[in-house]
Amino acid sequence: MCGYPIALGLAHVQPIAAPIPRVPWAAGRALYRTDLIVRQDAPYRTLEDTFAGRAGWTVAHSHSGFNAFRHHLLPYRTPDRPSLYREMTGQLVTARNVLDAVREGRIDVGPLDAYWHMLIARHAPQLCAGVRVLVSTELAPMPAFVAAEGLPASCVERLREAFIDAAHRPWFAGLADPLMIEGFATATRAGFELALQWDREALAAGYPQPA
After folding, report:
1. The domain spanning residue 126 has which CATH number?
2. Do the domain assignments include residue 160?
C-alpha cells in the first residue's frame, strides 16, 4: 500500500515491511521515486520546457502519482505564475493510464512510479517504447505490505521478522530477481511522515493540486 494514504490515516492498517528495489539510486534502502516521463520524440530537455503544456496525475491519495509530482513542481511556482500548465488532467487513476496518455500524446508529461517503471521496462518493454524519463523526483519511503489495524502486535512482529529474514532464505533469489528487489526493510507509520510534510508544504503554499 502507498505510504501517503497510510500517513493520511485513510486506511486502518499497520505497515509491516517494504521492498528494497535493486537499483543504484535506492542504495540498499526501501525508497522509491517518481519518474516524470515524456515521449521519446518530444523536444523537451528540461521540466521547464513542458510548462504551458499538458500534464496529468493519477489520484489525490497517491504519493507517486500526485503528492511527489506536486512537491516537485512547487519550487517553480511564482506569484506571477501560480499555475504551470495550460491543461492538467486529473483522475487518470493508474500508472498505466499515465504511461499510455504520454505515449499516445494526450498529455505531454506525467508522473510514473519509478519502481513500477523498472518492472514494466523489464517484463513488458513494448509498453515503454517511445517514452523517456525527463527528470525524477526526490526519494521517498517505498510502499509497504500492511496488516489490518486489529491484528495483534505479536503477529505483526512475526510477519515483520519473516519479511526481513526472507533475503537469507535459499528460495529468495528466484523470487527476488523478477521483482528486482534486494530484500525488505521494516516499515512503520511514522516512516511515512515525509509524505505528510510534502503535503503540508503544498497546502501552505496554496497549491492543493498540481496545476
Report:
1. 3.40.190.10
2. no
